[in-house]
Amino acid sequence: MKLYTNKKYTTIAVYAIIVIAVNVVIVTAIFKFDSILGILGKILDVLMPIIWGLGLAFVINPLMVSTERIYQRVFKNSKRPKLMRGVSVAIAALLFLGLIVGVIAIVVPEFVNNFNSIVDNISNLVNNAESWMNKAFKNYPQIRKFLNDQINNFSSDLTKMQPMLQNILDSAAGFVGVLYNFVLGFIVSIYLLLGKEKHIAQTKKVLFAKLRKSTVDKILHFGNDANLVFSGFIIGKVIDSIIIGIICFIGLTIIGMPYNVMISVIVGVTNIIPFFGPLIGAVPSALLIFLSDEPHMVIWLLLFIFLLQQFDGNILGPKILGGSTGLPAIWVMIALFIGGGLFGFIGMLLGVPTFALIYKLTREHVNDRLKRKKMPVDTQYYIDNAGKLTEPRMRRTPLTPEELESIMIPSCDEVNEAIDAENEADSLNEADETEETEDPVEADVPDDASENE
Q1: Which of 17, 117, 249, 274 has an alpha carbon 20 to 30 Å from 110's alpha carbon atom?
Q2: pTM surpassing 0.90?
Q3: Total number of domains constituting the chain
Q4: Domain containing 127: what range?
């Protein structure tokens, strides 16, 4: 028995199966949401070294490219590209690891020492606060008792911080997990950088094989824009923050500020966040100075951070970053709010370049549509000619009863007679044209001519 297929019903059946499958997936996702999250978490844990590798490769790539340029200048006309790539990757990886190890070696011991000194200064701070409140509110015993109770509770909570630090240092499971992912990701990044061109070519090969050329062109254009925006912003911000941290350390050392290393690290790290970074870094830094032996230095610290932020925002930042984002200030704030609310510090860091990429693609799309409509793309034109872009609608006034009565509407018979008369006139005109185009009748042959024959 031969089975005959019908394309129409086959298509209907395929769509029905797809709809049923989608509904099953949605229902399963609703009732098994926790299980699905657990499965996704396991998948993410498995893929975490690859994610780390992609991120580290993205960060190390500029160092590798710069090293390759220096290599080409030193060894001109080199015919060993694999050797050049291997040397460049090795130097870039060593520089990156050296930077990470140096920061950890400086920050961690300083953090432990400063933390212990802060805990030791808590008792002195509490005693000074109690003596000041006893003098200020000696005539108000109820207020004095309430404030003393609050200070005692605060001091009891702070005295628990020292064993808490020991517990944090002892619980190394989380640190080991991060270190494991970092090491595997670093190895993955080395392999990605060694065969960077080949991996990119293989990705393009798959895209061209599976998608239309126009779609691939859009994807490649999007990837190029994303690379320019993210690399320009992140790398520029990292360099800017390192310089700001070094300047902060030098300035605080000259002033004689306590905890200068820790505060410089805090200011440098938080400076990566645009707009709100200095404010975020100033709060814990001021708290550290307030809990130190010299709380009066808080004012000098805030003044110094304010001046440093003005220098970074008006001089250093524009020189390094330039126009890498091109994002207006209002969109920077929206990107920080949304990114920080959803993904915390990483969201605040990556939210700005993400919104900058969306803003850039949207602007290009709008400009292309305006060019197709033969309209100007300059925004200033729409500011100067706001009232001339659309013509005002003509206001229609209703007809009066006299005007309605004066309108003569022909009957159906009159319309049919007019149509018949027009058709007859057209047929007569066509007949006249055919007579004019016919060949003329040949003249009679004269008798003389016939006799001669």
Answers
A1: 274
A2: no
A3: 2
A4: 50-210
